């Protein structure tokens, strides 16, 4: 998928997959950090998602955590008689949200519909937006359409509704099948 790479996106099925040259490691107390071997740097945030993670749970049965002479943590698998620097619990990490903001803290009068819907998938959902030919209604309809919803624009004026649909389609051609408009009940007899 050259188009994805051109857009700066990787062709992967996991947002947690690390870019080439990166490694995921853990501290003694269970925090996950990321090593960038190309730049020889480490950081707490995942290079793609920006999330901080920590280990959930205890070591599996038969495993033990040790520290080598350099202070590096390693793990001993007594059952299979092997050692590794890779924490066996890395598959069971959880996101660290130390200060989970409330809705009132995250959104204010300048928050856009795109910011509120970020990271959500509305594929297969039907959304009816009233007053969708201008203002907040238009921005909301556009945002839902971008996030995969089947959007119905409920407008009083057929001309302005058509213009709104054209503008949305002009901005995001790939969502052309997810938008339609709906006239008020009075206008149905004219169609």
UniProtKB/TrEMBL annotation:
A single GO molecular function term of this UniProt record: transcription coactivator activity
WW domain: residues covered: 16-49, 57-90
Sequence segments annotated as region (Disordered): 1-24
Gene Ontology biological-process annotations: apoptotic process; hippo signaling; positive regulation of transcription by RNA polymerase II; Wnt signaling pathway
Keyword set, alphabetical order: Apoptosis, Cell junction, Cytoplasm, Golgi apparatus, Lysosome, Nucleus, Tight junction, Wnt signaling pathway
Location(s) in or outside the cell: Cell junction, Tight junction; Cytoplasm; Golgi apparatus; Lysosome
PROSITE patterns with a match to the protein in the record: WW_DOMAIN_1, WW_DOMAIN_2
Pfam families according to UniProt: adh_short (PF00106), WW (PF00397)
Keyword Cell membrane carried by entry: no
One GO cellular component, as annotated: bicellular tight junction
Alphabetized PANTHER family for the sequence: WW DOMAIN-CONTAINING OXIDOREDUCTASE, YES-ASSOCIATED PROTEIN YAP1 FAMILY MEMBER
Oligomeric and partner information: Interacts with TP53, p73/TP73 and MAPK8. Interacts with MAPT/TAU, RUNX2 and HYAL2. Forms a ternary complex with TP53 and MDM2. Interacts with ERBB4, LITAF and WBP1. Interacts with DVL1, DVL2 and DVL3. May interact with FAM189B and SCOTIN. Interacts with TNK2. Interacts with TMEM207. Interacts (via WW domain) with VOPP1.
Protein name: WW domain-containing oxidoreductase
Species of provenance: Gulo gulo
């Amino acid at each position: 998928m050259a188009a994805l790479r051109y857009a700066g996106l990787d062709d992967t099925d996991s947002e947690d997959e690390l870019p080439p040259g990166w490694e995921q490691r853990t501290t003694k107390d269970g925090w996950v950090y990321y090593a960038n071997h190309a730049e020889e740097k480490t950081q707490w945030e995942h290079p793609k998602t920006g999330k901080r993670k920590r280990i959930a749970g205890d070591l599996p049965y038969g495993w033990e955590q040790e520290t080598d002479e350099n202070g590096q943590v390693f793990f001993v698998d007594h059952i299979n008689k092997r050692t590794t620097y890779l924490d066996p619990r890395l598959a069971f990490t959880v996101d660290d949200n130390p200060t989970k903001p409330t809705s009132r803290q995250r959104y204010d009068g300048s928050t856009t519909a795109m910011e509120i819907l970020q990271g959500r998938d509305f594929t297969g959902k039907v959304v009816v937006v009233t007053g969708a030919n201008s203002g907040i209604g238009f921005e909301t309809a556009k945002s839902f359409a971008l996030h995969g919803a089947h959007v119905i624009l409920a407008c009083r004026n057929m001309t302005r509704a058509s213009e709104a649909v054209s503008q949305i389609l002009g901005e995001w051609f790939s969502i052309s099948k997810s938008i339609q408009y709906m006239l008020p009940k009075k206008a149905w007899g004219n169609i």
